[in-house]
Amino acid sequence: MERSGQDSWRRGWKWIVFMMVLCLILPKTTGQIKYSVTEEIKEGTAVGNIAKDLGIDSNVLKLRGFRIVSSVNDPLFKVNENDGVLYINRNIDREQICQRSGACVINLKTVLENPLEIHYVAIEVLDVNDHSPSFPESSKRLEISESTLSGTKFQLQAALDPDSGLNSVQQYKLSQNNHFRLEVKDRSKDGKVPILLLQRPLDREAVSNHRLLLTALDGGKPPKSGTMEIMIDVLDVNDNAPVFTKDAYSTEINENVPPGTTIIRVNATDMDDGLNGDVSYYFGNVNSKVRELFDVNAATGEIIVKGKLDYEVDDSYEIDIQASDSGSVPLRTDKSITVKIKDVNDNSPIIEVTSLSNKISEDSRLGTTVALISITDLDSGINGNVISFVAGDVPFTLMPSVQENMHAIVTKSHLDRENQSIYDVTITAKDRGEPALTTEKTVRVVVSDVNDNSPQFFQGQYNFYVCENNEPGVSLFSVNAQDGDEGDNAVISYQIARDSSTDIKATTFLNINQDNGDILALKSFDFETLKTFQFQVVASDSGSPSLNSNVTVNVFILDQNDNAPVILYPVSSNGSAEGVEEIPRNVNAGHLVTKVRAYDADIGYNGWLLFSLQQVSDHSLFGLDRYTGQIRTLRSFTETDEAEHKLVILVKDNGNVSLSATATVMVKLVEPKEAFAASDLQSSAKDDEDSHVTFYLIITLGSVSVLFIISIIVLIAMQCSKSPDYTSKYLPETNYDGTLCHSIQYRSGDKRYMLVGPRMSIGSTIVPGSHANTLVLPDRRRNNEEPKMPSADWRYSASLRAGGVMQSSVHMEESSVMQGAQGVLVQNWPTASSAADAEGGEVSPPMGAGVDSNSWHFRYGPGGPGAPPQHLKPGEVPPEAFIIPGSPAIISIRQNQGGEDDKSDFITFGKKEEAKKKKKKKKEKKDKKDKGKDDGDE
């Protein structure tokens, strides 16, 4: 006993010691702290001060390692180890953490190290209404039979809301309708469940489907909602029998209608759906005769003729038709149809040919019998009364015979086998029934031939084109004729007529095939010798007597490229195509060196010649116009260029196989004085060669020159007969050569102007761009001054004004060159600048023009002092040159704005009122004439 007591005492002390040690080893624990926060609160929001609530000094928190024990890397809450404040680390979603549980509490464990202390914190997450109710399906389809009884219920799926409490689904609403209402049942687990209740029976025939909208609302403020569309399809039941669209059906048909003809169609409708509304048609209580004659289409209700109807057998039928639906218990409706048969003219006339002639001659007399026919009709009465005739425009008619129903086909006009050899005569027989029946019978009549047509050529005249150099004995062309007859009457033979009136006997070099009209040449033609000829061909048939006709044949020989070009220029004394041209070394680019002339005996493309440089010593010096053969310089010559150049020109035609010839031109560069002398010699030689070409041109130019000189002399005489009357502003000028009849000077700005007559003073210049017959005299007093605008106080005669409609007739760019007649040295003279206000005087001749010269040419273009003028050959006058034969004076022809030459605006010599009046009248007359033309154009 003692021993057991001692053991018990020892065991008690051991337990006490163990508990004391355990208390020293285990950390201290305290009670639980609880906080409340709402979900979706902002991150970083403070929840509470754990250190303060636990009574822990905030200064030792960091030293003791105050922290929250969490198993995730991104916890919902964090504690500040400096002050012990608990704050939200990330967004809190109550529905995600606690799902649909009633209370949502989060338990946190906080730890203090050294010594170890553990504290528990409970955080309750309060719900907010952040979710709307939603149905599992956005739409729900129900099928309800129209026979469903009132009060039947249909359970619907409940709406779900992740929120809890009042924020979850609290009620349902159903859209307004006449057949359904909504009931809501509370279930502890599923919450509120909607139930659809049928309160009125459905009728598919009235409304086949219904659309309802179910709305779920939560208890939030404001409440949130979700909707679901309910589509109800009303299922059909067979509660309607077929109904015919007409109360009575009747029809009329003709007898002998073909089998398969639809005579009537009945129609019945059933308001049910599907098989309950699918209507089929059948015979009702009918006899076997009706079933033999008629049939009914079960799907469409068409009554179809099955046998042959005959009015003489039965004129009406009663047909019973039954309409039935396809429901499980079919519903049927009967209807009777009356069919009446109408009598018709169902027998056509019958035509039979009794006798027919095989052929009838085209020269048969009128009334000749061709065939006999009989016409009958099996019908009686008016349906058997027949009218017969020959149809169409044929030379035959139908004549009644003595015997009943017999007729004869006879000729009613002359026959022409060539016009038509076979006639299909159609006899038409028509009865008088309603509707009338017609029968046609065709009889073929053949017309035999007689020789009454002569051969006829296909063309009234033949035109054939034959290339020259043809091969003899080969067929060239063919003529063809036809004969309207047949047999031997149409066999044609051809021959060439022997006409002695023509100069060319075609039979000597042509032959014709008498069977087919092919014509061949016995020799080869030459276009250059014979270009065209004509002959006649005679065509004869083989009839008895024979008939014939003829036709004219025109033959045109076509040119071939069988002639090579012939060089006309240059040609040397020995007849070879070689020539030498000498030109000054100082000519400009574009200078005409020479022109190669060639001739081709062929015509068209075969005679169209093209020129090309075959060989040239320097391609940069000379250019050749491929169409005209003109050789021109491409640039100015330099001192390094060779003095002699060889040009080989190839001249070829444009034939398919072109032929060619070559010409050689040696171009020698000489000094300008030598060139002028050579040019005069060449011009003189060429004038001798071409005197017969230019003879008439010289006569014409001479006549015009004589008339013009007479006009100038008369004009000078009239000017000299009057004394000038000028204002005091005109300055006298004593520096002239004494040859002027009148000379008036005046000053405008820094220029001096002088009106001149047929002679000019020395040292004056032509003003480029001027408008009147006025010379600009050099002003030696103001050479170094800038030009000034002309003052407005000077005046001169109206005929000398440059304004109005007059425009400048001579435009000079850099220099003006005046060239005399042949053999006279060309003179360059400086260019004066035009007036600043565009009111310069008119153009006058240059000073220094010799009185012995016969004509003067103007040339305009770039140049300068010392630049060579354009070299013109005798007879070649540039289009811009003004030639005044027989006078040293040069006429300025001005243009109005219309671009036409005003012949009245010639040089005005002095101030002459009569001349001004004549000019004014002439101007007015021209304006009226132009106005009349304009009115006519409009």
Structure keywords:
34% strand; Immunoglobulin-like; flat; 8 helices
Describe this structure in words.
This protein is mainly β. It is built from eight helices and 56 strands. Among the domains are: 35-126, Immunoglobulin-like (Sandwich); 139-235, Cadherins (Immunoglobulin-like, Sandwich), CATH 2.60.40.60; 243-342, Immunoglobulin-like (Sandwich); 350-448, Sandwich (Immunoglobulin-like), CATH 2.60.40.60; 566-670, Immunoglobulin-like (Sandwich), CATH 2.60.40. The longest helix has 30 residues, at 691-720. Mean pLDDT is 74; it is low at 1-5, 17-30, 725-746, 753-916 and 931-938.
- What is the gyration radius calculated from CA atoms? 65 Å
| Range of helix content | 10-25%
CATH architecture of the domain at 566-670: Sandwich
Taking the sheet with the most strands, its summary is: 5 strands, mixed
What distance separates the N and C termini? Answer: 162 Å
Count of discrete alpha- or pi-helical segments spanning 4 or more residues? 8
* CATH class term of the domain at 566-670: Mainly Beta
> What is the fourth-level CATH superfamily of the domain at 566-670?
Cadherins
Shape: flat
Catalogue the unreliable spans: 1-5, 17-30, 725-746, 753-916, 931-938
- Compute the average pLDDT: 74
Annotation, overall tally of beta strands: 56
CATH-defined topology of the domain at 566-670 = Immunoglobulin-like
- The proportion of strand residues reads 25-35%
Helix/sheet category: mainly beta
